[in-house]
Amino acid sequence: MDANMAAAFAVYLVGTASPGPSNLAIMSVAMEQGRSRALSLAAGVVLGSVCWGMLAAMGFAELMRNGLAFAWALKLLGGFYLLWLAWQSARQAACAADAAKAGQGCAGLSHRQALLRGLLMHLGNPKAILVWLSLVSLAAPAAGGGGHGTRVVAGCALIAVCVFSAYALLFSAAAARRAYLRSRRWLHGALALAFAWAGARMLRGGV
Fold it and tell me: What is the model's pLDDT at position 145?
């Protein structure tokens, strides 16, 4: 692995570890519903990222750039899905306030629902494939040959597993869950704002 491949992995690591809707969702589920469901959500996020990565490695990014109708449709679906997640988080914030008074908890996600939520969060972001295209192009001189894209995707997938699993494990610790119980209303409120901002930005901006 020379400098180009290392640079591609470094860029992906920084982007993956930086706070964003996926990281915040994993943190929230880890603190509220525990480690196993957070890991299911993380698995969905990784799977969605790998799907976009493989499409970029196979050259579908250029087709998507030229298919404006498809790109716009995907952008609208992704934006509205993020707004739906914002609404769900806002409901959770209200539920947390009511539950605190009644001494009850809010209904959580099943493992399947957590996996699908993570998958749809990433598949609903059409800009992800363009990021992947940049990573594949950046690492191309280092890898050489026709299979360089799959090697980039495999390396980044390993990074994603490590980063998102670390979020799930760290924020499902007992101390983090105690902190969540004290501030869950504000956490879900912040998550609702983050999803709403991301969804509005996707709907407003171009692909």
Answer: 45
How far apart, in whole angstroms, are the C-alpha atoms of residue 135 and residue 203?
24
- Rounded distance between C-alpha atoms, residue 163 and residue 177, angstroms: 19
Neighbours of 109 (CB within 10 A): 18
**100 pLDDT tier (thresholds 50, 70, 90):** very low
Task: Give 104's pLDDT tier (boundaries 50, 70, 90).
Answer: very low
Sign of CA dihedral 155, 156, 158, 163: positive
3-class secondary-structure state, position 199: helix
d(CA 85, CA 121): 9
> CA-to-CA distance for 84 and 79, rounded, in angstroms?
9
Q: Is 41 helix (H, G, I), strand (E, B) or coil?
A: helix
Of the candidates 45, 111, 79, 72, the one whose C-alpha atom is nearest the C-alpha of residue 202 is 79
pTM (2 d.p.): 0.71
Length, in residues, of the chain: 207
Q: Rounded CA gap, 72 and 78, in Å?
A: 10
CA gap 129, 51 in Å, rounded: 9
CA-to-CA dists, residue 118 to 26, 37, 86, 146, 203, angstroms: 9, 11, 14, 30, 20
Rounded distance, CA 106 to CA 20, Å?
24
Which amino acid, 61? Answer: A
> What distance in Å separates the CA atoms of residue 58 and residue 48, rounded to the nearest whole number?
16
Q: 68, exposed or middle or buried, with CB in 10 Å at 0-12, 13-18, 19+?
A: exposed
Note the Cα 120 to chain centre separation in Å: 9
